[in-house]
Amino acid sequence: MPLTMRPATPADVPDLAAIYFSAFHDNPVAMACFPASSPACRDFIAASFTEEMADPRAHWLVVTDPDAPESPDQPIACAKWVRPAAAAAGEPN
Questions:
Q1: Distance between first and last Cα of the chain
Q2: Pairwise pLDDT comparison (12 vs 36), residue with the higher score
Q3: Which first-to-last residue range defines the signal peptide (predicted)?
Q4: Do 79 and 58 touch, CB atoms closer than 8 A?
Q5: Distance between CA atoms of 41 and 32, rounded to whole angstroms?
Q6: pTM of the prediction?
Q7: Distance between CA atoms of 43 and 23, rounded to whole angstroms?
Q8: How far apart are CA 41 and CA 18, in angstroms?
Q9: What does the alpha-carbon distance between residue 42 and residue 22 come to, in Å, rounded to a whole number?
């Protein structure tokens, strides 16, 4: 199973939200703040991810499984990195 990595796109946001809730399903603090059973929380996380993707300092990556028969480009994992503001402005850290 060779996995591939690519930049995330806004179209990936529903899958990224699902990955988030799957990753933190057993974290009591995360689930107290953002319960997966709440449509409002799911919408909030998706809207937050969409907004964060628009930040030029943010870099989102997704991992896909090209051998998945029905969804070879569907994200199965993700990562986000945000450059520090000082580094983005060309200032030393």
A1: 39
A2: 12
A3: none
A4: no
A5: 11
A6: 0.79
A7: 17
A8: 12
A9: 12
- Between the CA of residue 61 and those of 36, 64, 91, what are the distances in Å? 23, 10, 25
How far apart CA 40 and CA 45 sit, in angstroms, is 9
Domains, the chain, with CATH or none: 4-88 (3.40.630.30)
Structure tokens at 8: 């995330």
Cα distances (Å, whole numbers) of residue 4 to 13, 40, 68, 70, 84 = 18, 32, 12, 16, 27
Interval 26-74: pLDDT, tens: 888 878 888 888 899 899 999 999 999 999 999 999 999 999 989 999 9
